[in-house]
Amino acid sequence: MTVAAEAVTVAVTGATGPARTAAESVVQSIDWLAILPPVVVAAVALLVLVADLFVRESRKHLLGLASVAGLVVALLALIPLRKGDRTTFCLVDDATACSYTADHFALAVQALVLGGALLTALLSITAAKDDTRIPAGEYWFLLLSSAAGAALLPASRDLATLVVALEVASLPAFALVGLRRGDKRSSEAALKFFLSSVTATAVMLLGVSFVYATTGTMHLTEIATRLDDVPAQLDTLAQAGVALTLVGFAFKTAAAPFHFWVPDTYVGAPLPVAAYLSVVGKAVGFSGLILVTVVAFPSYADVWGPALAVLAALTMTVGNVAALRQSATRARGAIRLLAWSSVGQAGYLLVPIAAAAYTSDTQIGSTVAYALMYAVVNLGAFAVAAVVARTRPLHRLADYRGLYATNPLAALALGFFLLCLAGLPPGIIGLFAKVAVFSAAVDAGLGWLAVVMAVNVVIALFYYLQWTALLFRTPDGAPASQESAAGTPAPAEGGGAPRRPALPVPVPLALAIVLTFAAGIVLSGVPQLILRFATGNLFQ
């Protein structure tokens, strides 16, 4: 403390040494490096919003480039934190109770979230440029704001920060879904998404209030300690708080029967936003669910363990059966299939969390590894869908027939992504992720859940392989170069519209496909890496 500051302290308190020590003890030091990733994204969001006021319409694409650059910087900011040993915003009298912890779990999820937001931004550059109904400045601000909240959530270690981060991630997402001007389907999807999410938040806040009334603290580690010795008269209140909190997060993770908003939201949202919700939105919900169950509520594992196991079985079954029923000729059927597929994948992601109630907490690493695999390949599938939509905007599954003849690289990439989702070679990362999740269920003694998962994997094989086979069939029932006698393209099979020639793939879309394909190949080579990193020190 400087001489001037000491003089002020003396003048105000009338004391020197002891008073100065007390004054210093209430001032928290902030580890700016630890919180740098979400701070960078939030700062870039504000800069983009202000810059939008001064940038001419013809140069709005620069806002997208600035957003991509900001997300790259945020990803690079994770590198100095790779040891996973930094905390900040801790209690003055208890340095172990902190509101922000950059451990390996948080860093793995932040890398997933920021990487997913970066790939979404690459998909969005072309979409924002081609679709004049999307206001560019607002779009980029909302996307970055949501990404900032999503990056904050996995490092949150108290219920207040957790809820705030969850809402910062969710509120801009509502606007993104309905941002397209004059689109009734988009507005309807945004309304359904908003109402379901608000309901989930209300239920979750009620549960959080019950937990706080029982324990008298918001910090997750202290909640875990105090729930070990809850007075008998408060035990029912504590159980209700745990159950309501889980129900709130079940909405956020799209677990059945709280999944009803997913198909219509994905179909009505702009394609990049649907991709963002399928990956980043899911990562936010599952990371929050992991934190409240494994870190805050281990004493009530007998409550949330069986509940999550049942939810996992129900979710994967509902999602896969609904995906199986999608028609190849239905408009936006490909997006609906991806939506229902994401519900089924959510069921797989729930399995290791449920298993953690019966065995070691390190089972959670299987969820993180599976989420990373799913994020990479699902974003890649959406990137290829964006390429196909340039000539086939109806998003029908039939539009992918013969894609290999017109765009072989995109077809091969999509085939690889679908095989990864199915868990078949050469998608080794998909196979590894499913084996890790299956092993978690078996190790926990949840044999019935492992059987349900095995049946659902077989069901999912059918529609993933059916879509993959379409890519390599003869386009429209005839060679791609065949033309009618009048010189016009041959009609589609069944009297449909002629197949239009493929347009050049924009650089951002091509880059998104290349990045996801390369990441899938790398992770297939070293699948154990992310599993070891994610279980590094969250539960030590």
Automatic annotation (TrEMBL):
<dbReference type="InterPro" id="IPR010096">
    <property type="entry name" value="NADH-Q_OxRdtase_suN/2"/>
</dbReference>
<feature type="transmembrane region" description="Helical">
    <location>
        <begin position="273"/>
        <end position="297"/>
    </location>
</feature>
<dbReference type="GO" id="GO:0012505">
    <property type="term" value="C:endomembrane system"/>
</dbReference>
<feature type="transmembrane region" description="Helical">
    <location>
        <begin position="33"/>
        <end position="55"/>
    </location>
</feature>
<feature type="transmembrane region" description="Helical">
    <location>
        <begin position="237"/>
        <end position="261"/>
    </location>
</feature>
<comment type="function">
    <text>NDH-1 shuttles electrons from NADH, via FMN and iron-sulfur (Fe-S) centers, to quinones in the respiratory chain. The immediate electron acceptor for the enzyme in this species is believed to be a menaquinone. Couples the redox reaction to proton translocation (for every two electrons transferred, four hydrogen ions are translocated across the cytoplasmic membrane), and thus conserves the redox energy in a proton gradient.</text>
</comment>
<dbReference type="GO" id="GO:0008137">
    <property type="term" value="F:NADH dehydrogenase (ubiquinone) activity"/>
</dbReference>
<keyword id="KW-0813">Transport</keyword>
<feature type="transmembrane region" description="Helical">
    <location>
        <begin position="159"/>
        <end position="179"/>
    </location>
</feature>
<protein>
    <recommendedName>
        <fullName>NADH-quinone oxidoreductase subunit N</fullName>
        <ecNumber>7.1.1.-</ecNumber>
    </recommendedName>
</protein>
<dbReference type="Pfam" id="PF00361">
    <property type="entry name" value="Proton_antipo_M"/>
</dbReference>
<keyword id="KW-1133">Transmembrane helix</keyword>
<feature type="transmembrane region" description="Helical">
    <location>
        <begin position="337"/>
        <end position="358"/>
    </location>
</feature>
<feature type="transmembrane region" description="Helical">
    <location>
        <begin position="303"/>
        <end position="325"/>
    </location>
</feature>
<comment type="subunit">
    <text>NDH-1 is composed of 14 different subunits. Subunits NuoA, H, J, K, L, M, N constitute the membrane sector of the complex.</text>
</comment>
<feature type="transmembrane region" description="Helical">
    <location>
        <begin position="62"/>
        <end position="81"/>
    </location>
</feature>
<keyword id="KW-0874">Quinone</keyword>
<keyword id="KW-1003">Cell membrane</keyword>
<keyword id="KW-0520">NAD</keyword>
<dbReference type="GO" id="GO:0050136">
    <property type="term" value="F:NADH dehydrogenase (quinone) (non-electrogenic) activity"/>
</dbReference>
<feature type="transmembrane region" description="Helical">
    <location>
        <begin position="509"/>
        <end position="530"/>
    </location>
</feature>
<dbReference type="InterPro" id="IPR001750">
    <property type="entry name" value="ND/Mrp_TM"/>
</dbReference>
<dbReference type="GO" id="GO:0005886">
    <property type="term" value="C:plasma membrane"/>
</dbReference>
<keyword id="KW-0472">Membrane</keyword>
<feature type="transmembrane region" description="Helical">
    <location>
        <begin position="370"/>
        <end position="389"/>
    </location>
</feature>
<feature type="transmembrane region" description="Helical">
    <location>
        <begin position="409"/>
        <end position="433"/>
    </location>
</feature>
<feature type="transmembrane region" description="Helical">
    <location>
        <begin position="137"/>
        <end position="153"/>
    </location>
</feature>
<keyword id="KW-1278">Translocase</keyword>
<feature type="domain" description="NADH:quinone oxidoreductase/Mrp antiporter transmembrane">
    <location>
        <begin position="156"/>
        <end position="459"/>
    </location>
</feature>
<dbReference type="GO" id="GO:0048038">
    <property type="term" value="F:quinone binding"/>
</dbReference>
<comment type="similarity">
    <text>Belongs to the complex I subunit 2 family.</text>
</comment>
<dbReference type="GO" id="GO:0042773">
    <property type="term" value="P:ATP synthesis coupled electron transport"/>
</dbReference>
<keyword id="KW-0812">Transmembrane</keyword>
<feature type="transmembrane region" description="Helical">
    <location>
        <begin position="445"/>
        <end position="465"/>
    </location>
</feature>
<feature type="transmembrane region" description="Helical">
    <location>
        <begin position="105"/>
        <end position="125"/>
    </location>
</feature>
<feature type="transmembrane region" description="Helical">
    <location>
        <begin position="191"/>
        <end position="212"/>
    </location>
</feature>
